[in-house]
Amino acid sequence: MGGWIGVDLDGTLAEYGGWKGPDHIGDPVPAMAFRVRKWLADGRDVRIFTARVSGVREGSEVDETTKGIQDWCEKHFGVRIPVTCKKDFGMIELWDDRCVQVEANTGRRMDGKTE
Q1: pTM
Q2: Dist CA 96 CA 98 (whole Å)
Q3: Residue 75 and residue 72: Cα distance in Å, rounded?
Q4: How far apart are CA 61 and CA 107, in angstroms?
Q5: Per-residue pLDDT tens over the stretch 46-74
Q6: Dihedral sign from CA coordinates of 11, 91, 61, 55
Q7: 67-97: string of b/e by CB count within 10 Å (b at 16+)?
Q8: pLDDT recorded at residue 58
Q9: Order of strands, edge to edge, in the sheet holding 91-95?
Q10: Is 7 exposed, middle or buried (0-12, 13-18, 19+ CB in 10 A)?
């Protein structure tokens, strides 16, 4: 199966109780950690999709933030998962605690709400 799966970090893959600085990442959320481990075991392309690397100065600041996230991934998943804040046409799914799914080409919410 082609394409990559984007997984938000804070509040989705890692527990989040409010911003505590760039060096703090919460404990893994068990259900998402289980899901990500399965995807990785199945050979799926999983990427951390996080705002932590958006809007920061290019170069060393992004590198340090990315390194911290990948260190956390290695500790909890045994691998350094790629980190991005950019969508591309290869992304097939996005798992995020802030998403609202809409029906393609209509803008209608899939959860039945109108606003």
Answers
A1: 0.88
A2: 5
A3: 5
A4: 36
A5: 999 999 998 765 666 678 889 999 999 99
A6: negative
A7: ebbbebbeebbeeebebbeeeeeebeebbbe
A8: 61
A9: 83-84, 45-49, 4-7, 91-95
A10: buried
